[in-house]
UniProtKB/TrEMBL annotation:
Superkingdom as given in the UniProt entry: Bacteria
InterPro entries tied to this protein: P2_GpE
Name listed for the protein in its UniProt record: Phage P2 GpE
Organism: Marinobacterium iners DSM 11526
Pfam families: Phage_P2_GpE (PF06528)
Length: 36
């Protein structure tokens, strides 16, 4: 897991903010070069 927050930590976030964090996690997991 790249970011591991509890559901209660994310409860007050807007959907757009959650989507942004998901994208950040995806980039970190895959690496900035886009490869696996």
């Amino acid at each position: 897991m790249v970011f591991h927050w509890r559901p209660c930590d994310m409860a007050d976030m807007e959907l757009v903010e959650l989507m942004d964090w998901r994208e950040r996690a995806r980039r970190r997991w895959e690496g900035d070069s886009g490869g696996t």
